[in-house]
Structure prediction request, 427 residues.
Amino acid sequence: MSKLKSREEYEKTGSFRFWRWLDGRRDPYVGQVEMKPQTPVETPELTIRERLRDSQAVRDKVYDIENNKSLNFFHRVYVLAAIVYCVGLAVILLAMVAYLPPTGEADRPVNNEVSARYIESGLQETGAVNIVTGMILDYRAFDTFGESNVLFAATTTVLILLHRKKKNQDGRVEELENDRLLEPKRDAILQGSATVLVPIIILFGIYVILNGHLSPGGGFSGGAVIGAGLILYLSAFGFERAEKLFTEKLYKTVSFAALTTYCLAKSYSFFTGANHLESHIPLGTPGAILSSGLIFVLNICVGMVVACTMYTFYVMFRKGDF
Amino acid sequence: MTVFQCVLFGFLIVCAVSVSFSKNLLNSVLIYMSFSLVMSIVWVTLQSPDLAITEAAVGAGITSLLFFATLKKIHAINTRREQEKKDVFQGLNEKNVGEEVSRRE
Prediction:
């Protein structure tokens, strides 16, 4: 609105009308066009019966599956083709497996210098007793970073698709009621078993994450276990108590902090050495819990991201909101 | 390959076939869950326990839970209350149809 003209003058100009039309503030037909009330159309009963009969005849002709020759033929060919396809695929795959070299032979193509290097000097170079974790989070940490980015992209997609804004109050309330329909309300057995099981599950997850470089497991497995424990807590005690612990803000903070720490730690590792083996972080004694340099930190980061992601997936599927 | 492993593999094949042949979607998800559970035991016998932990947590736990949530969203699980509602609705329809027929006659 121009400051040089007054409100009345401005409302007479064309630009005001144009913007009003563009914003949809005024319906151009209201007050301009004469509205007539519609007269209800009476259809004679004979016509209705004729139409019903005709449509029934057409339906009989179309849905007469038993006497339709081409449809029967197609159905038989379809079943036959499906069986032939499945059997052919199974035969091809079994033949492929038969040509694979047998397990445990010394001259297999898998036993090359790469795996020999991993097995022989993995403990000295990475400091991880669990060679698998040493490979994943030290030699091939760049691949793992790509994988966690894939997981992040998947979470973002789920959030975009399933997240509902709080503006839509009516739909949200209805959805909440629908959601509570199948949820057991103060189920004594479920709540009692959850009280016993949830701390054990979460403790086991934390153990798996912290011992990722010593024993089987690691960030992803431990994070998934913690996420499953959180989901059990949510199913047993409902959203009202789970929301006190886990909010959208916590999810954002934890995901962002963990991913950034991972990125910075690995980029530090990449910048210090050409093959990032000479990062000047002490590796510690192999077997101690505070050992193997960056792997310990990276495991914790991956575990937190995965736990938050699993829980968020479940919440998004259930309610569409935190 | 021990007898135990053979039994587990046979169970896996039975599960995989019966998932695709079961009519009820809820049954399919439950069979899929047991498939993942047996698969995690197979991973242990194949000497890869970290895969076993991941399979048990993700395959048997979280994936099945997400399937359950989805089935509930698309109303594929018939709860008792929904079934009652449906029955009442059908009964109302039948009553209405009967009244209409008698009125026309």
User: Anything to note?
Assistant: Chain A has twelve helices and no strands. The mean pLDDT of chain A is 80. Chain A touches chain B at residues 130, 132, 181-182, 208, 216-218, 220-221, 224-225, 227-228, 231, 310, 313-314, 317-318 (CB under 8 Å).
